[in-house]
Amino acid sequence: MTKLVPGLMLGVALVATAACSKKPPAALPPAPTDAPAQPTQPYGNGETTQATPLSEQFRREVTSDTIHFGLDQFDVDQESRAILDSQAKWLVAHPNVRITLEGHCDERGTREYNLALGDRRANAAKNYLAAQGVSPDRISTISYGKERPVAMGSDEASWAQNRRAVTLVLN
Amino acid sequence: MKLQTIAFATLCLAGTAHAQTTPPPPIANSPQAAAQAQGQSQDQPVIDIVGGISAPMPIAIPAMPTSAVVDTPAGSTDVLGQKLADVITNDLRGSGLFTPVPPAQLRTVAFPEVTAPAYDYWGGTGAQSLVQGYVRANGDGSLTVGCYLYDVLSKVELIRQGFVVSPSDWRRAGHKCADAIYSRLTGEGPYFDTQIAYIAETGPKNRRRKQLAIMDQDGANHRFLTNGQSITLTPRLSPKLNAILYMSFERDRPSIHIYDLNSRQDRTLVSNLALNFAPHWSPDARYVLFSMAVGGNTDLYRVPASGGTPERLTNSPGIDTGGSYSPDGSKIVFESDRGGTQQLYVMNADGSNQHRISFGGGRYAAPAWSPRGDQIAFTRMGGGAFRIGVMNPSGGGEQLLTNSWGDEGPSWAPNGRVIVFFRSAQGSGRPDLWTVDLTGRATRKVPTPLDGSDPNWGAVRP
User: Fold this and answer.
1) Interface mutation vs chain A, best among B252, B255, B272, B275, most A CBs within 10 Å
2) Residues B121 and B260 grouped into a single domain
3) Confidence (pTM)
């Protein structure tokens, strides 16, 4: 089950450069604690670089916001664990942040079963994060089944990308 | 547009009342009397579709004449006569059991001829059966459509029926006529005067816009019921035909909704922090069976259609979903991967006596119990294909009816002889609606204005 994960490449690259600078929480973001206080306008004054939404910051600072699954599987494999570890670390450092885990499937399953399978995937990721110290109360889940693919093809590579759980920062 | 309750009288056109207005009355005795006149073969279907071997029957369906050309909200009565013949022709051809005589061989039927067919002419076209009828605009604004079926070879009348409809429902008169003919000639139940609820789809593959929609079985009278702002899935027409049960992602809360077709009001039946999906009616429309996923585990629940506390029916650690009631409401067929892969299981309606019925290769999903009770349709996955198949409720007699890259989601026509499903194209993923009969030979694409998925076939309209 070869995984083709282009999205991951970028994440790995970012972490690689970050890792070069220093070991601990590389390049701390500016005062994340204040961020939730002021409701950031989505398309506001682009000058204020501090106003970067937390979700942007999350995506930038974790290995990836997405983990992938094998065909009809929902177990969190080694590669996914590394990604979720980086997410858990970030979430522990940002205790006020709430997240949603989206579960998704490829198109080669039936509609209703895929909704259930997506729920399994979202919860597998949730349980892993919880085991790493992220309170489950901060994590909601939703399954989109096969309704929201990211890769458009009907081929193994596309299906592998679409079998995923995506972590979304809510605030 | 509006779905009103129609007084849809099956007339035994008692002659005298009309005799003054329409000189040659295609009107007289009751259907029973007509059937008696035709004699002993009354209950014998002419076409045996159980075996499904017989060739399609040639049938002539000329335009229906009118006693007087009158303009109605549905058009003038003479034009309607042609359109009614077209509706009937399309229905019967679509069943795969009839070959309508080509238009070039159809002749104009004079009004008096409706009850006195030119058998010799029709015999010359190769037709074995002949459908004639008439259209009349009534003083109260309604339309009367007469519907007659003749056996060309034995020169006997097989059916004589009349339907009174409001002009906006003129197509229903055609479907009722086609239903009467189909039932008389095949011995099977009717299914043409029906509607299909489904999901109309458009847009790019990663952001499909999905709207609840409903249409006649032949694609006519199409309308959208939701605006597509939230993902909507898996609509199911109420057995009472007054509401549609479906799943919605409205406000990112995967929940069960009921859309009332009369009031056009939408109400949320089940919504909570869990994933609620796969709703199905009980045959008496009093309960809704659905799936709820909690913490990664999906089980089947039942809730009163009026709302209330869901009652849990299964509690396996696997995914239990996709339930469908037997027509008597005593049993439920569902799918579960408790044994490793998706397979079909049957249980009592209270959740007891769960046992597996599918044992073939591959995976089985989305079971639908036939309204006749004798078959269960399903989606079978394996070998790179998604196929529609049927088996009997104990798991035997499996037959695969289609073979395609992406056939899914079977739903039965009310007579239990035809199945509607959706077929997705490899690559684009764009689905459309198809029907297939139990022989697997008669397939038909159902026309839809956009792409279509998740079809659900309603009961015959009263």
Assistant:
1) B275
2) no
3) 0.85
